[in-house]
Amino acid sequence: MRYVIIRDDDTNALTPVSCLERMYRPFLERGMPVTLATIPGVALDTTLPNGKPEGFLAYGNGTKNRTMPIAANTKLVGYLRDNDGFKIAQHGLHHDYLEFDGIDRASVSDWLDEGTRLLLEAGFSPPETFVAPYDKFSRAALRETAHRFRVVSSGWYELGRIPLPWWPRYAWKKFRAAPHWRIGRTLLLSHPGCLLSCFRLHEKLLESIRAQIEQQRLTVLVTHWWEYFREQEADEAFIRLLHETADYLGSRRDLRVISFSDLVDSNVPLN
After folding, report:
1. Residue 152, Cβ neighbours under 10 Å: how many?
2. Considering only the top CATH level, what class is 2-263?
3. Per-residue pLDDT of the chain (271 residues; tens, 9 = 90+)
4. pTM beyond cutoff 0.70
5. Cα dist. 215→43, 94, 219, 254, 268 in Å?
6. How many CB atoms lie within 10 A of CB 104?
7. Cα dihedral sign for 141, 147, 153, 155?
8. d(CA 236, CA 223)
9. Quick check: helix, strand or coil at residue 14?
């Protein structure tokens, strides 16, 4: 049996219900969970290095506040709570650029607590999984995050950002070329880049997903909801590819789509 986790990044207080419904109804109807890496209190002024606003801010509502808690979007929160196929992971705090890169341990602790508090205020369950904005951790951030969460999902783990006591376990992971590993009770998962991206060749997208799934027992497929609705315009071709991905995953008897939470205290093989 092979396993796939769908991780969609950047759900926040500005995300329209209609976008998630359009994208993921075919997954939910098949009983496939979708984990939304959710920004607890989105920063409304986040920009990329080129000065452009982040894509997940495309549906801004003109508020003058710098941040907005997820609970402010009552329609979205109600929708997510009513559809239990959606699972919530904690995605940073505000999603400022490289937010969890280069900060000290005391700040990390405060930010993690604040992010969890905002998710709980919205009525979500305590999150078990953490995703850092841009998949970037400082050493202190990675250590503190792994101490608090049962699952950390990232693109990769760099030696210079790994706490020193973890180095032997990290070396063993590298020797085995294993994408996923464990520190104490915490699972540290890596993913093969954002395969479900509008910036990849559409003709090669499903082929790349199939090839990746064949290479390992557990694959984390990452995408971003706002890429399907850039500048508030639906990308119909890209949405069709997402739904074709649901068809493909649902057609395989040797494959299960699971959530990060399904890995906690389970016998699902990592590698």
Report:
1. 23
2. alpha beta
3. 999 999 999 999 999 999 999 999 999 999 999 999 999 999 999 888 898 899 999 998 777 789 999 999 999 999 999 999 999 999 999 999 889 887 776 789 999 999 999 999 999 999 999 999 999 999 999 999 999 999 999 999 999 999 999 999 999 999 999 999 999 999 999 999 999 999 999 999 999 999 999 999 999 999 999 999 998 999 999 999 999 999 999 999 999 999 999 998 787 888 8
4. yes
5. 37, 35, 9, 14, 16
6. 11
7. positive
8. 16
9. coil
- Residue 164, classified by CB atoms within 10 Å of its CB into exposed (0-12), middle (13-18) or buried (19+), is exposed
Q: Which two tokens stand for residue 201?
A: 């060749």
Structure token digits, residue 65: 């506040």
Residue 4 has what DSSP assignment? Answer: E
Look up residue 135 and give its DSSP letter: G
- The angle formed by the CA atoms of residues 137, 84 and 1, to the nearest 5 degrees, is 70
Give backbone dihedrals phi and psi of 258, rounded to 5 degrees, phi first: -125, 175
**Domain range list for the chain:** 2-263
How far apart (Å, rounded) are the C-alpha atoms in residues 162 and 139?
6
The three-state secondary structure class of 41 is strand
Torsion angle, CA of 122/123/129/131, rounded to 10 degrees?
Answer: -10
